[in-house]
Amino acid sequence: MRTTDQGPETAFGNPRGTRVTTIAGFPAIETQGQFSPPDRHCGVLIGVASGQTLQVQYDYDGTALPMTRELACQKARAAAELAMQTLIEQAGE
What we know:
The chain has one helix at residues 69-91, and strands at residues 2-4, 18-23, 26-31, 41-49, 52-59. By secondary structure, the chain is an alpha+beta fold. The protein is globular.
């Protein structure tokens, strides 16, 4: 997980494609790293403020379980939801 000083829209140029979604009510984009295995990686970029993005990635490097891009993205979205819940709770304190 990391934050950047650019919005999630920077992912729209990814040749591997993007999917627009929301995480905890915030605009988000699912995408893949250009050099990541397509069935083992998913990144979620969440627009948390103007020009700021929280990036959460899921990478599977095992062999014990079958993995697909959709499953990797489900896991990335779940982690992103948890991260956003934590940030929202901390902002309310």
